[in-house]
Amino acid sequence: MQYETASLLNLAISLIIDTGFSWIRMFAALGVSIVISIILGIYAATHRFAEKLIIPVIDILQTVPILAFFPVVIFLIVGALPGSLGINIAVVFLIITSMVWNIILGVYEAMKVLPKEYGELSKLYGLSKLEEFRKIYLPAVMPKVAEQSTLSWSIGLFYLVTSEIFSTGNANYAVKTGIGAAIASPAITGSIVSYGMALIIFVAFVIATRLLFFKPFEDYASRYNKHSAKAKARTFPKAVTYAKVMKAFSSRIIKKIGPADNIAKKAKSAKSKKYTYGNADKATIPDRFGYLIKYVIMLAVIVGVVAFFLTSPKMVDYEIEVIKAFAYSFARIWIAFALTLAVGIPISVYIIFVTRHGSRYVLFFQILSSIPATILLPAIVSGLRGLPYYGELVAFIVFFLSGIWYIIFSTLSIAKTLPPNILEVKDIYGVQGGEAWKKIYLKAIIPGLITGAITGIAAEWNAAIVAEYFSIGTNVVSQVSVGVGKLLDLSLTVNNLPLMLLTLINMTAMIIIINTLLWKRLYRRLAKIYGG
Question: How many domains does the chain contain in total?
Answer without folding.
Answer: 2
